[in-house]
Automatic annotation (TrEMBL):
This is Aldo/keto reductase. Residues 15-263 form the NADP-dependent oxidoreductase domain. Pfam families: Aldo_ket_red. Gene3D superfamilies: NADP-dependent oxidoreductase domain (3.20.20.100). It comes from the Bacteria. The lineage of its organism: Bacteria, Pseudomonadati, Pseudomonadota, Alphaproteobacteria, Hyphomicrobiales. SUPFAM superfamilies: NAD(P)-linked oxidoreductase. GO terms for molecular function: oxidoreductase activity.
């Protein structure tokens, strides 16, 4: 398994599992649980969830999927911006831990920037860290100017990642945020790495993938995995698709394929505001 090293030296799988929209439909639950467990077997041991997802339904599903094998998992959850005050962050984390059936998170993220000052949220994260409730913290959906502000806030140097929208059709961060993060040794977590499935409808991508015996999903994920210090967290509730996506780890991109992808999905030519889903 390709790994990405966090600022504290911890290596995590470069391919993990997203869980937005999971745990919400009763009829889908058995297959979703089987999918997450299959992912763990295949080494996709980083699982991303959030208190927002199904208002706790995703965390409850993940808790059930990892029961008895918590130590194998690198568990990521997120706090709502409106819960990101000193006291509410700690209470929100406790609720997430209960739903997940665990005593600690490996990474706890501020889901997006709200009105609570960074300093207050950082203080809560550091308290949770001291109490052993979280191992490290990070942020999500922060553009470069917010990251610059965060990194100069007292304690802000402790940030472990920025989880942002990044895929072939959303390359804006390559202009500024990605180089900035790289210069600081800060990994990026790419969410919606197949653009919530929309990339798979791209005929040219499908044609290029098929020419090499891959699917469009595999090529799109392989492109993200080919980046330096980027973690991809695709979501699927189906075992067959999970296995298909995991095989992206075996795809090796050549300079010709990279160039063909650049022609189909050009890199940014200037600064663009960070997009968010
Ligand atoms: P993804 O790009 O991962 O796409 C997920 C969609 O693609 C689902 O509808 C899934 O369907 C489908 N899919 C997955 N694999 C395949 C395949 N091989 N063939 C066909 N269809 C496929 O989008 P997400 O928005 O879910 O992003 C991934 C994760 O990132 C989220 O689940 C969440 O954990 C995180 N995220 C974080 C955000 C943030 O603000 N921090 C925002 C958005 C996402 P099915 O499940 O039916 O197989």
């Amino acid at each position: 398994m390709k790994t990405v090293t966090l600022p504290d030296g911890t290596a995590v799988p470069a391919l993990g599992m997203g869980t937005w929209m999971m745990g919400e439909a009763r009829g889908a639950r058995a297959e979703e649980l089987a999918t997450l467990r299959r992912g763990l077997e295949l080494g996709l041991t980083l699982i991303d969830t959030a208190e927002m997802y199904g208002e706790g339904a995703s965390e409850r599903l993940v808790g059930e999927a990892i029961a008895g094998r918590r130590d194998e998992v690198f568990l990521v959850s997120k706090v709502y911006p409106h819960n990101a005050t000193r006291a509410r962050t700690i209470a929100a984390c406790e609720r997430s831990l209960t739903r997940l059936g665990t005593d600690r998170l490996d990474l706890y993220l501020l889901h997006w920037r709200g009105s609570v000052p960074f300093a207050e949220t950082i203080e809560a994260f550091e308290t949770l860290k001291r109490d052993g409730k979280i191992r490290r913290w990070g942020v999500s959906n922060l553009d470069l100017v917010d990251m610059a502000e965060l990194s100069t806030t007292p304690g802000g140097e402790g940030v472990g990642t920025d989880q942002v929208l990044y895929n072939l059709s959303r390359r804006g961060i390559e202009w500024d945020l990605l180089p900035w993060a790289k210069a600081r040794g800060l990994p990026i977590m790419a969410y919606s790495p197949i653009e919530q499935g929309r990339l798979l409808a791209d005929r040219e991508l499908a044609r290029l993938a098929a020419a090499h015996g891959w699917t469009a999903a595999q090529l799109a994920l392989a492109w993200v995995l080919d980046r330096d210090r980027v973690i991809a967290i695709p979501k699927t509730g189906h075992r067959a698709r999970l296995e298909e996506n995991a095989a992206a780890l075996d795809v090796r991109l050549t300079p010709e394929i990279r160039a063909a992808l650049d022609a189909l999905f050009p890199p940014p030519r200037g600064s663009t505001p960070l997009e968010m889903l």
